[in-house]
Amino acid sequence: MTLWKPDPTFYPSPRDAAEAPPEKLAYVAAFDRSAQRPDALAVLDTDPGSPSYGTVVGWTDLPYTGDELHHFGWNACSSALCPYAPHPHVERRYLIVPGLRSSRIYVYDTKDRVSPQLVKIVEAEELGKRAGYSRPHTVHCGPEGLYVSALGGYGDDGPGGIAILDHNSFDVLGRWEVDRGPQYLAYDFWWHINHDVMVTSEWGTPSMIEDGVVGELLLGRKYGHKLHFWDLRKRRHVQEVDLGDQHQMTLELRPAHDPTKTYGFAGVVVSVEDLSASVWLWHRDVRHGDGSRWAAQKVITIPAEPASPDDLPDVLKPFGAVPPLVTDIDLSVDDQRLYVSCWGTGELKQYDVSDPFKPVEIGSVRLGGIVRRDAHPAAPDERLAGGPQMVEVSRDGRRVYVTNSLYGAWDDQFYPDGVGAWMAKIDAEPFTLDERFFPHGDDFRGLRVHQTRLQGGDASSDSYCYP
Amino acid sequence: MTLTAVILLGAFHGINPAMGWLFAVARGLQERSRDLLLQSLPVIALGHLASVALVVLAVSATGSIVTATALSIGAGVVLVGFGLWHLLARRHFRWVGMRLSLPQLAAWSFLMSSVHGAGLMLLPVLTRIPASHHGHVLSGGMLVAGVHTLAMFLTATVVAVVVYEFLGVAVLRRAWFNLDRMWAFALVGAGVVTLVGAI
Description:
The complex is a heterodimer of chains A (467) and B (199).
Chain A: H1 14-17, E1 25-31, E2 38-45, E3 56-65, E4 73-74, E5 94-98, E6 105-109, E7 117-122, H2 124-131, E8 133-142, E9 145-153, E10 161-165, E11 172-175, E12 189-192, E13 197-200, H3 206-209, H4 215-219, E14 226-231, E15 236-242, E16 247-255, E17 263-271, E18 277-284, E19 294-302, E20 305-306, E21 321-322, E22 326-331, E23 337-342, E24 347-352, E25 360-366, E26 391-393, E27 399-403, H5 408-414, E28 423-427, E29 432-433, E30 448-454
Antiparallel strand pairs in A: 1-2, 1-30, 2-3, 4-5, 5-6, 6-7, 8-9, 9-10, 10-11, 12-13, 13-14, 14-15, 16-17, 17-18, 18-19, 20-21, 22-23, 23-24, 24-25, 26-27, 27-28, 28-29
Chain B: H1 2-15, H2 21-31, H3 34-63, H4 68-88, H5 102-116, H6 123-126, H7 134-167, H8 172-175, H9 179-198
Helix pairs in contact in B: 1-7, 2-3, 2-7, 3-5, 3-7, 4-9
């Protein structure tokens, strides 16, 4: 049933969203690497005034095993207020949770309960037959319903792309692309919603990732290294921007939340030339043509850290260095702060991006890391495996949450003695770890933790149609 | 009495953010241009008028071949059915795209108004115009459509300018009452009244 007043978690503009009340719960995707036990949604108490602050207060096991939960999203968000097809009286209450390995998509109800309740399963076959895709990944709520990116084809390795789901029934409506042009690899996507522009990125097809990173493919520069720009309305490929094939794995896309702006940040995991990682800024190319073309430039370079081969896992021994491995980035809702996860070196960096062309590093937190194994102040004797990986920022920009697993098969290569499971919270100003918030180890019942979604929305969940 | 109802219905559509003033405000905010906002509103009203006029044409054409009673009953059934469908179906108008030319904006408004059933509410009024002469229904109906749209346009303009200049769109969070659901109830109600009057 629809509401009489707009859902209170919908905000017309990013400015309004920054005034949102602090989240009291965080939902975290947790998965069992061995696929012996079901994956789960863990719910964390994020209310500092609550006696159970920083602990797991809700838990919902999935009905099957082997899904490998990864990313997920909401059924509806602030884009429901967009003027051309407004539907503000729907509720933000369902989490859309894809299994990256099983290709199932689960729908969980979060209303009036702590532990989410399963309400629907979209089987891999429905996604495959209706949209032609498998390995669903990123979920965004947008003008045509739910958009879900997928890494693989149905029955084929590729191409990956985007499927559209109805945001009421959650039925798969079909493939989003009308003309995909040269695009083949898929991973993340988002948009400049008021400019009718879609942006997509590239990782690899299922065969390139599911058994771990493949050295020959990496050194052969076969993983994704391009950005694709599309007409969001006509669903047509418009332009590809190649960052250069040494820049392997162009993953997370974070466009400016201000709908009048046409820039965004893309993280690149590793350069095969020097193992550095980088963050790129895409923007309208004002120097060439009529200003409608897109360009990208490297705005952050993070060098590898030298290390003794004895301290390195097999996959890195030949290089004698730890790559930073920028696997996730997140942009605050006010577009002023960019957070960059260095999963290899075990660091979360904070940048001032008020001038997006010239990011300035203003903060750093060390946790884990392939060699350093930095501890959390709440457990100073515990050498941490994994590093800050998925990063999520609260709508007001004051709190940053990180979890430590990347992707099952890849965790095992870079942290072969076990990646463990932990989640940390960092206060943004000043940039310091919250010693009261460190769920880890058995708190997650032996499962690894991946993406976090904050109650009511967060910095990577909502798009806004008003400046 | 009838004229008042026609004007009030126009004002009701004018107030509804989904009917266009919000789109005009968004276009203005996006380009930081009040001119664009003011240009958009008449175009949106034009699309609305086209949608309403289509209903007038349909009524006029139907009225020339069936009796007044049959017309009223048909109108009542259409209203109740459309209202119920709006109440029960969870589908909503779908459209992607913010960057529209003015003709595209008019087309958007026409579609939005039609899906909303904006002209249907005039059925009770239209079916009551004396059908002694076919031309009367058409010209009288077009006058009704024109007055209705003018009321819609004036209301939308006032709301759009006030929101753009003074209130800001954050007011939507508090003030965006679910007019669509109310509209659906109103359609059903008007249909029932028309049916009762006809029988």
